[in-house]
Amino acid sequence: MADNTVLNTGTGGDTVGSDDIAGIKFQRVKLIHGADGVNDGDVAATNPFPVELTDGANTLTIRGTGEAEVLLTNTSATGSITANGQSVTMALEGTMSSIIQVLGTWVGTLEFQLSPDGGTTYYRHECLNPNAASELVFSTTTANGIFQPTSPGGFTHVRITSTAWTSGTANIVMAGSMGVNSFPVFARETNSLLPTYGVQIGGSDGTNLQFLRASNSAPAGTEYALITRSIPSGDDTVVGKAAHDAAVAGNPVRMAGKANANEPTAVADGDTCDAWVDLQGRRVVILNFPANVAADSTTGPKVTTLTTTSDVALVAAPGASLSVYVTGVSASNGSATLTRVDLKDGTTIRQSMYLAASGGGFVASFNPPWKITANTAFNGALSVGVTDVRATVHYFVGP
Fold first, then answer.
1. CA diameter of the chain
2. SS3 391
3. Closest by CA position to 213, among listed 198, 228, 230, 195
4. Buried b (16+ CB within 10 A) or exposed e, 263-281
5. Tens place of pLDDT for every residue, the chain, 399 residues?
6. What is the pairing mode between strands 97-115 and 140-141?
7. Is 252 helix (H, G, I), strand (E, B) or coil?
């Protein structure tokens, strides 16, 4: 049998939409919506049908175009505490944050608690007091106020209970909502679900540094304190764990080098570099190595032949603001005549050594290096002219 039904088939009436299912026709109905006496239009993608779900207290509304908005009405609970051990409890199902207001005239101690298992087990929990001058965090209170349990998401119930009572009536008003309280906290209790230690840095008002400190030695309910410190002016001194010649325990920050049995690979100019130590931690030092060798100069060794009594530049003047640093000199007389060699800072004799005929010579080392006057040649001259004296100079040029 085909879908749809023709009314009054004998005279050709209107056709009504229907769906044929196993020989039985089910009428097709098109929805519209609107209040009594009002047509808000056919239900369509651009005109969705509103749906509202409720359990009698909470209402879930789905509405809008192209999106879904979930609106959950606040949960709430009220009650009074007049004796030790009494509680006021509120379910947190579907909520992300809650507020607890304590009113009345009373003398005692109230503790804030959260339960993760449907109200069977409760753990002491911290609350922020936004009206307190310092906005401290408390797990108990002995005075009226408005308190926000910190990060209650994931818990099923919140309650406030009296742990000590003297007199009076505390009136409790609780409310939960989808709003989120985001405030880092820390706890010290053995049965706490939160870390044992912590510090929350707060910042500065331009004059003082302020931060929230958690202590594991403070009395219960007063574990947290707002610490204020003046911002110092001028330079501060960083000190270590112990003074000179005092014993050091633990793992202090130390200066150290990088152990390497071989010479490390050179780094580029201007790069940071590890200090080189041997495998026993001893600092590797290369004697006489220049701290700053001029980039456009040469270094020794350099060999010069002397034959005359006139000054001969063993190392030429290096240029303005630079000096020759002599680290070693050797000389050998290849002639058959005894002579003397004079080593000079410019024209001033600083060292003289006799050279025997036919192979006489000397070797001299300088540690620290012999620094020649800035922009002055390191010269050599013979006392008697001969045919061949070879002078070798080890040096570098620097400022």
1. 153
2. strand
3. 198
4. eeeeeeeeeeeeebeeeee
5. 677 777 776 676 788 888 888 888 888 888 888 888 888 888 888 888 877 766 666 666 555 554 555 555 567 889 999 999 999 999 886 566 788 899 999 999 999 998 888 889 998 887 877 666 554 567 888 999 888 887 666 788 899 999 999 999 999 998 877 655 544 443 334 444 444 444 455 555 656 655 555 544 444 444 455 555 555 566 666 677 777 788 877 777 777 889 998 888 888 888 999 999 999 989 888 765 655 555 445 778 899 999 999 999 999 999 898 899 999 999 999 999 999 999 999 999 999 999 999 999 999 999 889 999 999 999 999 999 999 999 999 998 888
6. antiparallel
7. coil
CA distances (Å), 40 to each of 1, 28, 49, 60, 225, in order? 36, 20, 10, 22, 59
Identity of residue 188: R
C-alpha closest to that of 332 among 255, 386, 268, 254: 386
State the Cα angle at 266 between 299 and 262, rounded to 5°.
100
3-class state of residue 1 by DSSP? coil
Query: Contact at 8 Å (CB) between 252 and 243?
Result: no
CA-CA distance, 346 to 336, in Å (whole number)? 29
Residues 6 or more apart whose Cβ sits within 8 Å of residue 198: 184, 185, 186, 214
Pairing relation of β-strands 258-259 and 59-62? Answer: unpaired
Evaluate the omega torsion of the peptide bond into residue 252 and state whether it is cis, within 30 degrees of 0: no
Q: Where are the domains of the chain?
A: 74-230, 302-398
What are the residues whose beta carbons fall under 8 Å from the beta carbon of 298, sequence distance 6 or more?
A: 397
Supply 67's token pair: 């999106």
Nearest to 297 by CA among 279, 272, 319, 321: 319
Report the C-alpha gap between 259 and 276 in whole angstroms: 6
Q: Locate tokens 């706490």: which residue?
A: 192
Q: How far is 186 from 192, CA to CA, in rounded Å? A: 9
Distance in angstroms (rounded) separating the CA atoms of residues 390 and 324: 20
State which fold the 302-398 domain adopts: Jelly Rolls (2.60.120)
